Amino acid sequence: MSVSVEEKDFDISAEINALTLGNTGIGAVATFIGKVRGEAHGNKLQSMTLEHYPGMTEAELSDIEQEAVMRFHLSASRIVHRIGPLQPGENIVLVITCAAHRSDAFAACEFLMDYLKTRAPFWKKETGVTGEGRWVDARECDEAALTRWLKPA
Amino acid sequence: MSVSVEEKDFDISAEINALTLGNTGIGAVATFIGKVRGEAHGNKLQSMTLEHYPGMTEAELSDIEQEAVMRFHLSASRIVHRIGPLQPGENIVLVITCAAHRSDAFAACEFLMDYLKTRAPFWKKETGVTGEGRWVDARECDEAALTRWLKPA
Amino acid sequence: MTASGNPTRQVSIRYFAWLREKTGRSEETVEIGPGILTISDLVTWLRSRGPEYEAAFASPGTVRAAIDMTHVKSDAKISGAREIAFFPPVTGG
Amino acid sequence: MTASGNPTRQVSIRYFAWLREKTGRSEETVEIGPGILTISDLVTWLRSRGPEYEAAFASPGTVRAAIDMTHVKSDAKISGAREIAFFPPVTGG
User: Fold this and answer.
1) What is the number of other CB atoms lying within 10 angstroms of the CB of residue D24?
2) B16·A36 Cβ contact <8 A
3) What's the ipTM?
4) Which of B41, C33, C36, C38 sits in a 20 to 30 Å window from A108, CA-based?
5) Three-class DSSP labels, A5-34
6) What is the pTM of this model?
7) What number of C-beta contacts closer than 8 Å exist between A and B?
8) Tens digit of each residue's pLDDT (9 = 90 or more) over D19-54
């Protein structure tokens, strides 16, 4: 269980090894990587810059992770979120969830992404190929995705 | 879109890079790794051996993958399944799904695992710490997991 | 549909997992008679071939089959089959 | 609940994303009067401080707030707050 917010890229192999090495109770590892796309709403991107609220980000991510660990009986988990300027194709976020069985690992990974998307204080600003900046709007479907977690599984 | 059945371990970083490099339409990469647990049904394991039906395995996995690509609008995908003797903690299977958005990537990854578990001709034999062999029974919950894919999403 | 008087024909049969262990073979080529039309018929005939087959197919409900590498039910017709496989429910992943 | 006649008090305010850009500052310490009890009150008061604040808070429905790094609604009481933050709906991940 740990959370990092950093400018540098992550190494998914190293992260998975760190979580699973020596823990043979783990039968299932689900991961999610979010990446910068080259185009958004029909506009080509030059880059994307991620701003966050230091302190609150880590607190929110830790709360969300703790909730996932309890709810889905996780053996181990990890959240890494990048900040700063990122190019199309670069990684933004990594979530890893480890459990005995795949249903818990998958559900926890989706739960973490749904909560991270709507609770963790990050903001994306896109820079188009002609240099113009635009703050990304929150998507209603991200808010809607949360409702499925309201009832206990 | 590709499928491999092999004795050697896989490198998740290399596999993800091979799928995503140069494709900036990909915003979401979901992966699943299945691992050998050290204990099953209260019995400690020494090792597990995976047997398969060469030819049929690749055909089934390719069919399942093709179905997932169409159903969930995947940009890329990959299935690697290991065979032969494996120790507790070792990797068994890797599934990677790449899509523009996370809901498709997650759903496709779960879909692939559910179908792989019930359709791909692999069989696991556990060897306990005292050397006794035991073929793993199919789990009813794996069959039940399929029913959620019967209705179009 | 076909005319009677079919000659016997050769088909390759493969066994996996505990069916391989119980029958004591992973593959064999057998001559099957014209009366054997479905997977069920084939299982019934195989069981008559000896105690190792009898043991392997003792609980037909736990045996799955494939014709030419495609999953089939026990009532599937085997005419035209080149390779038939028997195995337990799969447990990969 | 508290007695009237509270002195003004200092609170640190932070702005993120386009609220930072529109107000032209990422952080400031302000003296707030005793009549400002909730986030809504604070927003109303901030809007009166100049056109850059007026522009930043023009659509209060698109502004979120946190007190001491915890998400709150606009009717949340700010008594005891050390740090209050304003930002748009989050867009990480």
Assistant:
1) 12
2) no
3) 0.93
4) B41
5) EECCCCCHHHHHHHHHCCCCCCCEEEEEEE
6) 0.94
7) 101
8) 999 999 999 999 999 999 999 999 999 999 999 999
